[in-house]
Specification:
5 domains; 24 strands; five-stranded mixed sheet; Outer membrane lipoprotein wza fold like; about 550 residues; alpha+beta; 14 helices; elongated
Length: about 550
């Protein structure tokens, strides 16, 4: 479990150079540190200390001070003796003697002990085995939370010891880590270990090792983008090849166009950009092989790889049909090839309750287009609009964006007609249920639904709803059609159909101010007339 957690942390840390916000994943960033996450990681690391990845390889494991063994003699009364390697790398076996095991592998120790025991006991009925691995110190320094000496065991890898020191800093290099062992310097590349599965890049530690983590270089990067599993920028070290970078990016996606991988290389001396293409079709299973790949070549600092997508790759075009059809749902289509008739065949056609005349067809592609003029008018107060702008705004605001006008009967009965239009991605078709009623609302005595009767006028439906109510404005009654049109009822230039709405508005309210104004105006007019008459009367000579 510990190794899984650390792998997760390191793997994401390795992409600090890419556009991924690493701080949101682990809490580690330049200006803050998630101390709880750090403490949890350190605790898990300590709990799993000395746990084995697999059985110990006796030919590779070097014994050292602190390793514990069990020595058993199988007689009528079996005896078991614990044996431990001394700080001087000596192994003292009771009744057998002293053995110098310095710098020996476990297999060589077994061989020497076997010879000694056989000479001392003249029997083959004995056992000698490693029972517990030793612990020792490893020094960690550089770009870690804290430089310190860390307890470790011969089965711990460098990454686990780094985690016990509090993990890497935000600016730590993951690929230029050095393990100092005596006069030798062993390179550590955590990206190769966690992203490419190369275990040699994350060696097990030994007593006295020192691990030095330098900061990373922002100017020393290679990058890969496009149709790969993990696109981004990665730290560069000498020896990196094209296959290394692709393995870091977790290989190609199924949508990758492998016959024209683009490589961009900036030539600093000439101040030029070199672009060339390679065919990596034979690398499609790169993650399933550890062998050298034909056509591989070394990369240089700043190289950028682009993996294009196959044109029109698996483009998911679909339409949605809902309502009164036998099999409503989301149907895949070939854009501009499949048509209405094809879709109706696939969805089983209409049900008996379908209102074919009222079907809505919405073209989503049209609704997504920006209308900059309407956006401007929405932000403009009505009082500041010109007369033309007001009329334009009022007309467009009632518009059903994307609505397609279709003669459905013709589209169904004549598949070759121009009404059987082609379908486009995200088109929506809504088939409503038949409405065998007229909705009468507003200033009527009993507003509500009235059963449709062919040939009735709006007055018939108003009377059926109890007649005009108090202060009803019967002259301004209007008909709202189910498709959005509005007609003044008294004009009779329409046909009432199921689903229509008859709306009777109230008479216009007259305020006290308006009444007072009218009275004052009338009085003023009467006064003026009276004055004129009085003047005329006064001018007439009296007899």
């Amino acid at each position: 479990m510990k190794k899984i957690i650390f792998a997760f942390l390191i793997l994401n840390f390795g992409i600090i150079y890419s556009q991924i916000d690493y701080s949101k994943i682990t809490g580690i960033s330049k200006f803050k540190l998630d101390t709880l996450a750090l403490q949890n990681a350190m605790n898990v690391s300590k709990q799993t200390q000395s746990l084995l990845e697999k059985e110990i390889d006796a030919t590779a494991y070097k014994v050292g001070p602190g390793d514990e063994f069990e020595f058993s003699i199988f007689t009528t009364q079996p005896e078991i003796f614990p044996v431990k390697i001394s700080p001087e790398s000596k192994l003292m076996i009771p009744t057998v003697g002293m053995i110098n095991v310095k710098n020996l592998t476990l297999a060589k120790v077994y061989e020497l002990v076997d010879e000694k025991i056989k000479k001392a006991y003249k029997t083959t009925e004995f056992g000698f085995m490693l029972s517990r691995t030793r612990q020792f110190k490893v020094i960690i320094s550089g770009s870690v939370a804290k430089s310190m000496s860390i307890p470790a065991s011969p089965t711990d890898r460098a990454s686990e010891v780094i985690e016990r020191a509090g993990g890497l800093k935000y600016d730590a290099s993951l690929r230029n880590i050095s393990l100092i062992r005596g006069d030798s310097v062993i390179p550590i590349d955590l990206l190769k270990f966690f992203l490419a599965g190369i275990k040699e890049a994350n060696p097990v530690v030994e007593g006295g090792d020192q691990i030095i983590i330098p900061p990373s270089s922002e100017r020393q990067k290679i990058s890969i983008f496009g149709e790969v599993g993990y696109p981004g920028e990665f730290e560069f070290i000498p020896g990196d090849s094209l296959s290394t970078l692709i393995r870091f990016a977790q290989g190609f996606l199924a949508s990758s166009q492998l016959d024209s991988i683009e490589i961009s290389r900036f030539k600093a001396a000439e101040k030029s950009l070199e672009i060339f293409f390679v065919d990596l079709t034979h690398w499609s299973n790169i993650l399933n092989t550890r062998e050298n790949l034909a056509g591989d070549f070394p990369l240089e600092i700043g190289d950028r790889v682009l993996v294009r997508i196959i044109p029109n790759w698996n483009k998911e075009n679909y339409v949605v049909i809902s309502g009164e059809v036998k099999y409503p749902g989301k149907y895949a289509i070939i854009e501009n090839k499949d048509n209405i008739y094809d879709l109706l065949l696939r969805c089983g056609g209409f049900t008996e309750d379908a209102s074919v005349a009222d079907i809505e067809f919405i073209r989503q592609q049209e609704t997504e287009k920006k209308d900059f003029e309407m956006e401007r008018l929405y932000r403009t107060p009505l009082t500041e609009m010109s007369e033309f702008e007001q009329r334009y705004f009022q007309s467009r605001v009632r518009e059903k964006r994307g609505a397609m006008a279709v003669d459905w009967n013709k589209a169904i009965d004549e598949p070759s007609s121009d009404q059987n239009i082609s379908l486009f991605n995200k088109d929506s078709i809504i088939v409503p249920t038949k409405k065998n009623y007229i909705n009468v609302q507003g200033r009527v005595n009993n507003p509500g639904y009235v059963v449709y009767v062919e040939g009735w006028t709006y007055l018939d439906y108003v009377n059926q709803a109890g007649g005009f109510g108090y202060r009803a404005d019967d002259k301004e009654t209007f008909i709202a059609k189910s498709r959005g049109e509005i007609f003044l009822a008294k004009d009779m230039n329409y046909v009432i159909e199921p689903g229509d709405v008859v709306l009777v508005p109230p008479e216009k309210e007259i305020s006290f101010t308006e009444v007072f104004k009218d009275v004052i105006t009338t009085i003023a007019q009467l006064t003026t007339i009276f004055g004129v008459l009085f003047t005329i009367y006064s001018a007439v000579p009296k007899k």
